[in-house]
């Protein structure tokens, strides 16, 4: 009962949190990526807002500001920090000096100098053909510094922006999932249903905690508080004892009344000892499970 209570209360909290806080927050991340991509595609903020954020979309003012910032950032060029953490940037930094690569990136951002002029000043190979004349080091210089120079004008990438520059929890997800309003309401409903179940289990546990199963020298005291003399018991059915821990005690409650009591090994510690005492004291029928497999007749 305690374990079931823990599961229902904990599960209810989990579902309620997802519906009330978790999934709405994930939807904000989904909209942020859409806004980021929209800005990168030169779509206006009002156009994006009208297209993606309908009248039934619930987003607070702070989250709306974050979406607008993501929309603006999506239309800007990537920063050096973002480039250095990207797959392309990491490849560049493995080939050339990081400080010189950053200098090439900064020069590319300024757009005042062409690659040819910059390469001439720094004495880097200006193209692949001249780089190959210098061997492997020359090719690494050209590919590394040229890629850093050219990447300065590339648009921001959500996969890097979400991790490095957004400073928002959860924005590192590459492909955020959207959760519809019915899905969110469903999570909250499941949470409440589990809590109602927890209340039922708690009340049931309180009721059961006061019940006692006992046996003295001559009588069985059932969990309902009924005193059953051993001499009134005419049958004990133990066929479910091995698998479910249940035994049924049939007894005479009056001249024309027969009743059944249950010995539940899952509820009561020592139920097996009580069952053993009953078996040794009654004179009635004891029904036990038997092996139903018949011996094979095949030769």
**Sheet with most strands:** 4 strands, mixed
- By helix and strand content, what is the structural category? alpha+beta
What oligomeric assembly is this protein in?
A: single chain
Number of domains: 3
Helix content: 55-70%
Report the count of strand segments. 7
Shape: elongated
Number of helices: 13
Radius of gyration of CA atoms, rounded to a whole number: 38 Å
Roughly how many Å apart are the termini? 52 Å
Give me the strand/helix succession.
HHHHHHHHHHHEEEEHEEHE
Strand order, biggest sheet? 6-5-4-7
Strand content: 5-15%
Summarize model confidence as the mean pLDDT.
90
Low-confidence blocks of residues: none
Descriptive notes:
It is a single chain. The protein folds into three domains: 103 residues, no CATH class; 75 residues, no CATH class; 74 residues, Roll (PH-domain like). The chain is elongated and about 115 Å long. The strands form two sheets. The protein has a four-stranded mixed β-sheet. The protein has a three-stranded antiparallel β-sheet with strand order 1-2-3, covered by helices on one side. It is 57% helix and 10% strand. The mean pLDDT is 90. Helix 1 packs antiparallel against helix 2. A hairpin with a 3-residue loop joins strand 1 and strand 2.
């Amino acid at each position: 009962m305690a374990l079931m209570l823990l599961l229902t209360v904990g599960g209810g909290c989990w579902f309620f949190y997802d519906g009330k806080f978790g999934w709405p927050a994930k939807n904000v991340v989904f909209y942020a990526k859409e806004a980021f991509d929209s800005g990168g595609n030169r779509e206006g903020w009002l156009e994006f807002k009208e297209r993606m954020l309908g009248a039934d979309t619930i987003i607070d003012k702070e989250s709306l500001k974050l979406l607008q910032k993501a929309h603006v950032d999506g239309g800007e060029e990537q920063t050096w920090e973002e480039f250095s953490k990207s797959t392309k940037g990491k490849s560049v930094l493995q080939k050339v000096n990081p400080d010189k690569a950053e200098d090439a990136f900064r020069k590319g951002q300024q757009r005042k100098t062409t690659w040819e002029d910059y390469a001439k000043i720094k004495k880097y190979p200006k193209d692949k053909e001249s780089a190959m004349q210098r061997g492997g080091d020359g090719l690494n210089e050209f590919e590394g510094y040229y890629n850093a120079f050219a990447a300065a004008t590339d648009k921001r990438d959500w996969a890097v922006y979400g991790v490095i520059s957004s400073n928002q929890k959860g924005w590192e997800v590459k492909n955020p999932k959207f959760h519809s309003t019915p899905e969110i309401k469903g999570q909250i409903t499941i949470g409440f249903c589990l809590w109602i179940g927890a209340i039922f289990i708690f009340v049931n546990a309180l009721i059961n905690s006061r019940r006692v199963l006992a046996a003295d020298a001559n009588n069985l005291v059932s969990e309902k508080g009924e005193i059953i003399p051993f001499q009134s018991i005419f049958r004990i059915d133990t066929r479910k004892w091995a698998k479910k821990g249940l035994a049924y005690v049939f007894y005479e409650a009056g001249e024309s009344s027969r009743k059944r009591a249950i010995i539940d090994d899952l509820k009561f510690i020592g139920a097996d000892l009580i069952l053993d005492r009953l078996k040794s004291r009654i004179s009635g029928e004891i029904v036990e499970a038997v092996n139903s497999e018949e011996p094979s007749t095949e030769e």
